[in-house]
Amino acid sequence: MSGRSRVYSRGPWLLAVLEIGHAAVPLAAQVAIDGGREPTNPYKYTWTLTNHGSKNITYLEIPHFLGVGFEAPPHWTYEITEQVVEGKPVTTGVVRTRPQSPWYALRPGQSAEFSLTVAVVANPPAPRSGTVKIGFADDTVDTIAGVEVPCPVPWLQRHALLLELGAMFALFLLVQALRSRRKKKRDLAPTPASAG
Asked: Which residue has the higher pLDDT, 16 or 72?
């Protein structure tokens, strides 16, 4: 064996080790998404997506509730499913955004900001932990959990005032029933003057 053939025989093995090492890096180390509901505006959510990996990011999918508008970086398109429309039942949906061409993908080391505006309603959507999808130039898709996204307000929280009023009314009726019962017992009980 010549020295040259040994180099070629080790070359693919080293390449395989490098590829395995790259694949083992968790997504959290490759991509960071920070943000959520803005502290001064409960109807706006803003996230910053940062690419720490070695592959271009070409897709982002964010779950939403009551979404009405979205702002993506320049040269990125988006679509909002289950957008709020008058007369249509409100359900959860997703926002899908991607660059217009691979040239505008989020390259390693770059960051971009994405914002979602939700409908102005009496009970704004509750910020909850959700899962977003991230797509890469090699057509792989991965997920990141724990991202603050707008979710439906829980039924109990939405109807808390009605439940409180109902409980107070039930307590009022119970007190009235007990008073009425005591009064009847007092009226039926013999008085000391009539007993003698």
From this structure: 72
